[in-house]
Design brief:
mainly alpha; 0% strand
């Protein structure tokens, strides 16, 4: 009777360390995401509105038809209309500015899902994704902008997904699967239609990667 070969001790230790690191990364990510969620809800309900929020509230009112609002208010604005469209849809459920601010929380969850689709099959990117999440939510302007009905927070968040996707492709030559590629493509399209400065900054980020691609 022969004994089945066993993994060397060093290999078993490496596997154990890798698993422990992945668990620690997941736990850190969940704690950070849940903490930011609680902070964003509290801030959104406690801050008073300011002028730009009153403007957004007015031009996305449900009493205005989509075509009239698009023609008279959203397209004449110097920013792309996507955020106004999202706010217009949100007004079907929100009755106050404080409630409408929570659309940013829905956007935050959607961005986390997109980031997960990008890194889920590339475990070496989990730590990078978690660090990027922590950098985003530790930034004071991110919390402030997340608690107002303007496009700044979604611009921050989508830009983080775009950068994460660029890193994934740069390190691995391509996306891990079609879902990752689709998530990144949707993030790019949305980011380019939120704010004019977001479009310019992301174009400057993407072009060098595109130029360096084989």
């Amino acid at each position: 009777m022969t004994n089945s070969p066993s993994l060397p001790a060093q290999s078993r230790d490496d596997d154990h360390d890798s698993a422990a690191q992945q668990i620690a990364t997941i736990v850190s990510f969940l704690i950070a995401a849940l903490s930011f969620t609680a902070a964003l809800i509290w801030t959104s309900t406690q801050r008073g509105p300011w002028y730009d929020e009153f403007y957004t509230w007015y031009v996305t009112g449900p009493e205005r038809t989509f075509s009239a609002a698009l023609r008279d208010s959203w397209l004449p604005d110097n920013h792309p209309p996507l955020f106004y469209i999202l706010a217009w849809l949100g007004r079907r459920f929100a009755t106050t500015i404080e409630q409408l601010r929570l659309m940013n929380l829905a956007g935050f969850f959607a961005v986390l899902a997109a980031g997960w689709l990008i890194v889920r099959r590339q475990s070496q990117l989990w730590t990078i994704g978690t660090v990027m999440t922590m950098i985003l939510i530790a930034d004071k302007p991110a919390l402030q902008s997340g608690a107002e009905i303007r496009s700044y927070f979604l611009s921050y968040s989508l830009a983080a997904v775009v950068v994460l996707g660029l890193v994934a492709v740069w390190l691995n030559g391509r996306f891990a699967d079609r879902a990752a590629a689709m998530a990144w493509s949707v993030a790019v399209m949305m980011a380019f239609n939120l704010h004019i400065l977001t479009s310019v900054i992301l174009a400057c980020l993407i072009l060098p990667f595109a130029a360096a691609a084989p």
